[in-house]
Fold each of these.
Amino acid sequence: MVSNEVQLIAYADRLAGDIDGLHRLLESEPWRGVFGGVHVLPFFTPFDGADAGFDPTDHASVDPRLGTWKSIGALAGRGDVMVDIIVNHVSARSASFVDWCARGDSSRYAGMFLTMASVFPEGATERDLTAVYRPRPGVSFTPYRVAGKQRLVWTTFTPQQIDIDVSHPEAQRYLDAILDAVSASGVSMVRLDAVGYAIKTPGTSCFMTADTYAFISAFTAKARAKGVEVLVEVHSYFARQIEIGSAVDRVYDFALPPLVLHALGTGDGGPLARWMKVRPANAVTVLDTHDGIGVIDVGADQAAPGRPGLLTPSQIDELVESIRRNSGGTSVLATGAAASNLDLYQVNCTYFDALGADDNAYLIARAIQFFVPGIPQVYYVGALAGRNDVELLARTGVGRDINRSYYTSDEVAAEVERPVVAALFALCRFRSTLPVFDGVFTFAYDEQASVLTMRWGADGSWAQLDVSLRDRSAAVSWSHEGVEGRTDDLLADPPTLR
């Protein structure tokens, strides 16, 4: 079972050069003891394709520029390691897709790749096509020449990412080979990337249908048999996240990041308090990831109009506008139609900039995250309280790159000297070390005073977080092994078990 400690999310090459470098970094000062585990973002061959590793040509091999499976195994020897299994698609440059394009029906991979005709053999109406949910504008097909004939190939995300039929024997062999390689290296958890889109059922939205749940259940059973837990990655309506949580090992709490921003930005903790009452407890909590800050996760149900979200449309509009203001307008450069990946359901911005680069507010946001039930993860840019990387965005034109900086070793060394980073590292150690976070959780919200109170208790020990949203102040108090402590300043005096 994955340990209940703070984990890091990182591209190995963008933080420490390669996988062995990431291992050395986590074992060096001041990083030692900060993160109990690490989610290593795609390191497969190649790690630098069209979508930063999420379109590998060989998903079962480690890109030799980053290391080997032994490198992953060594990293797993120091703590939990999570890796991605990209179940929805393969690269257009993969050997299997290239072979099918060249040989058509005579290829052993014929039927492995989804086309408009394979999903809609009787043809598709306008209603059929518009019912399909896609996190991008336009339809889900890209024309490719297959054995000399033009075919409409299903591409949910980009033209370079080809959707597969996960029920096809070759696709099953492909996914099994990835799971075998990952589990053999000692990985603790796999993240099923884009799994919500993996099953295409005519006449439906082709997103998180009953067939999708069945696929997730079957894949989870395979993973568990190999000693690997499964985390499901789905951005969707909050009620759907609750449903997913009841069917899997772990689910992301993607509603938390925008709700915390709303609470700290407006002084209104009501939406966050309502979410705390119903959210799945078996969550991985995040404030930032390699993707943007989700909006769809707190909005109304796009698949069933009339079902309200955790935030109203006007509250979401103000949230997006506040991120624009706080980031000095840089988030606008990387979001929506301004970005090549057209993220219409996310705002691309570092979490630190989304809070106006306010050290105090940032640490309060992290304290809230760490006290919310679940396994907390901190993205590498967030671990260094990073700012929007406008220069990288200008070079690539990829909106998400504003939050995907490359750090040199000298830059990392300089960043960890900043007080806000040192305080965050101390808060991570506190969260990972204190055993009460495996105990009983209680939550209260005083609407009149606008104060959040989160408390954990176990075997006579306890830890409590009190946050005054109106004045952005917080106190952490605790009792451990008969010794009590308290801090009212997370930046100058972060909680420490002495």
Note: The first helix runs from residue 12 to 16.
Amino acid sequence: MVRRPNLCVEGLPTRLATVALDDVDGLTATAEGCGGVLHVAGSYDTGPDGIATMRRLHVDAARVLVEVSRRVGARFVYCSSSITVGFGSREAPGDEDTPYDPDAVYGRSGVLRAYHDSKLEGEHITVDAGGVVVNPDYVLGPWDVKPTSGQLLLSIARGWVPLWPRGGKCFVDAVDCAEGHLLALDRGAPGRRYLLGNHNLSYREFMEACALASGRRGPILPVPRLAVGVAGAAGRVLQRVDPHRYAGLTREVLAAMQAERYRSGRRSWDELGVPRRPIEVSIREALDWFRTNGYLGRPVERG
């Protein structure tokens, strides 16, 4: 089910339906005969109605789709986010059971906290209904239409990015992430959460790998701590012009990139059998897709 046909679904051998996420009867008719329902609609929205939009997608739609799944007798998988999973150092990464203080990490209010809270509430709805939750970390690969997590790679491919954030993250290949969703549908334990993340890398390491694949010079200096506050202030202004493009330019998001937030996907490897493709493959395939589809200039001739 899609809001509207787009590049991601062009040519796929599947039936497409456009049904509102609050239309229980319409969704039930669409899902009739399906063995599984996967809720992968989501948004990190910094616009004026962003918090309300996130609640509709992450909470209200989860409640509706759980009911739809119950009606048609299908298994239910909810795509949440790593934001609801604790983290640690590279030597002792966090996992699905690692505690954390959301007030300290994401603040008491604002868009990032609203994203966290709405995703977590969607998880609770899913777990209470006996569904399965997947928590993708930093996803990288082709078909990043907007783009979202591929924006950093794209920026590096377009020109020299001299600074690296001081923190680190857990990365997962987009194909592995998609496979993780399907494996969760087939093998996931009811009420269980699965962090989808395969490679813990510092942002410096990741950006250097992106630069190498792009034929660009790698970053040479860490982001000055003072610059985080300045960039966050600029982001508040720029988001009024283009909420999506500058969604990551907030003080909270930039501060997160300065912190080491490593996680382990061992549960998904051991219980689901999620594959682990090398990060270099993810970078290369994402880059090839961006190039083919005109994000780096020229190409894009579709028959």
Note: Residues 209 and 280 are 7 Å apart (CA to CA).
